[in-house]
TrEMBL record:
Cofactor(s) annotated in UniProt: Mg(2+)
CDD domains: PTS_IIA_lac
Top-level taxon: Bacteria
One MF term in the entry's GO annotations: metal ion binding
Record's cofactor remark: Binds 1 Mg(2+) ion per trimer.
Keyword Kinase in record: no
BP GO annotations: phosphoenolpyruvate-dependent sugar phosphotransferase system
Residues modified to Phosphohistidine: 76
Positions that bind Mg(2+): 79
Organism expressing this protein natively: Clostridium sartagoforme AAU1
Catalytic residues in the record: 76
Signal sequence interval, chain numbering: none
Matching PANTHER family: PTS SYSTEM N,N'-DIACETYLCHITOBIOSE-SPECIFIC EIIA COMPONENT
Protein name, as recorded: Phosphotransferase system enzyme II, ptcA
Length: 104
């Protein structure tokens, strides 16, 4: 496995965890366990940050003149990164909506 593939799998692994945690947080909120939901969102943010760091490393390499070859696996990793970020943001909104609905 080459370095580019290793970075792609690092991104995919981290953001996959972030997505799973965000979904678990939504389920916790549905059960009115907001403390646990918030813990999982914070943990998801950490995994997303790790994914962003790995991705930024590739961007810095290319910005410094190192030509990276086109790779479907990197495209997939970037797609997973974007979707995980979106799911995390939606999870936060859903948790807040659930709190608002249950406080009435």
């Amino acid at each position: 496995m080459n370095e580019l593939e290793l970075v792609a799998f690092e991104i995919i692994s981290n953001v996959g965890m972030a997505k799973s945690l965000a979904i678990e947080a939504i389920r916790d909120a549905r059960n009115n366990d907001y403390d646990e939901a918030n813990k999982k969102i914070e943990e998801a943010k950490g995994f997303l940050l790790e994914g962003h760091h790995a991705h930024s490393g590739l961007i810095h390499k290319e910005a410094n003149g190192e030509k990276l070859e086109f790779s479907l696996i990197i495209m997939h990793a970037e797609d997973q990164l974007i979707s995980a970020e979106t799911i995390k943001d939606l999870a936060i909104e859903l948790i807040e909506m659930n709190k608002a609905i249950n406080s009435k």
